[in-house]
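Field reference: sequence -> structure
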Amino acid sequence: MPRSVTLLIAIACGLSVANVYYAQPLLDVIAEEFAIAPSSVGIVITVTQVCYAVGLFLLVPLGDILNKRLLIPGQMLLSVLALTAISFAPNVSVFFSGLAIVGLLAVVTQTLVAYAATLAAPSERGRTVGIVTGGVVIGILLARTAAGVLTDAAGWRAVYLLSAVCILSIALTLLRIMPQEERKASLNYFQLLRSVLGMYKEERILRIRSLLCMFIFAAFSILWTSLVLPLSQPPLSLSHSAIGAFGLAGVAGALGATRAGRLADRGYGQITTGIALVLLLFSWLPISYTERSLAALVIGILLLDLAVQAVHVTNQSMILNVRPEARSRLTAAYMIFYSIGSSAGSIAATSMYVFAGWKGVCWLGAGVSALALLFWAGTRRKC
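Structure field:
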């Protein structure tokens, strides 16, 4: 697969998944506009994550039986309509309805990951997955930066309107360059969904790596959902642009982990996972000094995002080699646990901040990270 096509798919993934995360640095202004209580504002993120999980189960497996050339751009064009509705939402009901649809359709990102893995040569699959998944994580992180800058310049609604324009452009580009595909699996829709559930029973590596995914993205979401709260309040009182800029540190960490796919190709997946999980646990130490040192926060973000991305790329590289004919279903089964972890982390983080402040959030993140490390240590010989 030409590198230019790999990069285009990575950009499409980043733009699509960013829609789920634009709200994270904007929770305070969204809560104020729609009169949402501070202790409950995490529901803004949870709504999209829950719908993302539903979309993973209902929509991503379709990539194994439908022509992706129509499926992928079609979902993106529907997202454009939902994003436009959010940008003009007159009340909280329309706002949450739009978020739900955006979350449901943002799973096109995972269809694209499976598509890229199918196009790649076996010896290049880990590298390709690393680049495309890097686009996903960078999209998640830059979403915060873009959302912060645009909100300060033109209000939070401009964030979703600009996203609609970008998604429309990339959807039309993909429609033009993607090759036609033949149907690969002779299953009806309900058989397809049953087979997703069956894979948990049949594939041990899927079960283990899915649970690791849940832990690491719970930790990831604990940080990024709650970070806006201490940064926007005294004594720091940073602007949305400044808060969003911390996503750039996360991008640097994510880029550093894109080589994890190559290590998985060479058989070093377990070693990479163990080292990354140790870094994930350690990252909460500098993060805990956020209210006293923004430099410490940057170091912690670099470590955390490097660790999460390294484990995530390794997980997908190992899983997608199991059953080539079912890559969309394997991706769906794996990413359902990503959504469970992310949504649980979001609501737990904001609740913990109200209850115990930033120190409580850091202890929560460190506890989840420690569980991930212990789980890996107990299962590393089984896959």
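Note: The chain has a mean pLDDT of 86.
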